[in-house]
Amino acid sequence: MGALQLAFARDYEFAPVIVWDALLDSDLVSGWLAEAAISPVVGGEYNLRWLNRVGQPESLGRITAMQRLDRLHVDTTTMGLIRFELDETPGGSRGTRTRLVVRVDLDVEPVFAPRVTADWMTALDQLDELLHGHPVDWANWERDHHDAWAQHLDEAAN
Q: Which end of the chain is less crowded, N or C, counting CB atoms within 10 A of the terminal residue's CB?
């Protein structure tokens, strides 16, 4: 195994309070990342059950750091340490938007980096869709999102 460190940045046309809620509310997280059971306090659970990956083990996690509207750190059993960082920037249709940076520290072989990258890029696409009122239809994930995931995988591998 090896230490893998990845970072992803995405701008969302919504205020940090809206993006923040989408990272911590179990119902909202279930609309973009995985079926979630979250206790939004430091030390609280951050458990994810993958609805689009048959046989993938549930990811059990704990919130290790949290500063409202700024950062959220989650240590998980299968996804490593995930650090969400939010930064409010001017712009967007409402005068403010959010830059979300996701940093992932994971103990896996480097050969898996493209897959992890594709998973996170797709998840961030799905977060954008959720913020625009379109949660993932997990029963039809293959139809709706597989092609985008495959494109992210191809881009990450090259």
A: C
3-state secondary structure of 63: strand
Q: Which residue reads 């704990």 in tokens?
A: 62
Its domain, for residue 37, covers: 3-157
* Spatial CB neighbours of 96, under 8 Å, sequence gap ≥ 6: 15, 16, 88, 89, 90
> How many domains are contained in the chain?
1
| Model confidence pLDDT, tens digit, residues 66-92 | 999 999 999 999 889 999 999 999 887
Positive or negative, the CA dihedral 52, 55, 60, 65 is negative
Contacts of 52 (CB under 8 A, 6+ apart): 136, 138, 141, 142, 145
Which CATH number characterizes residue 134's domain? 3.30.530.20
Residue 13: Cβ-neighbour burial (10 angstroms; 0-12, 13-18, 19+): middle
pTM above 0.90, yes or no: yes
Residues of the chain above pLDDT 90, percent: 83
**Tens-digit pLDDT profile for residues 21-65:** 999 999 999 999 999 999 999 999 999 999 888 778 899 999 999
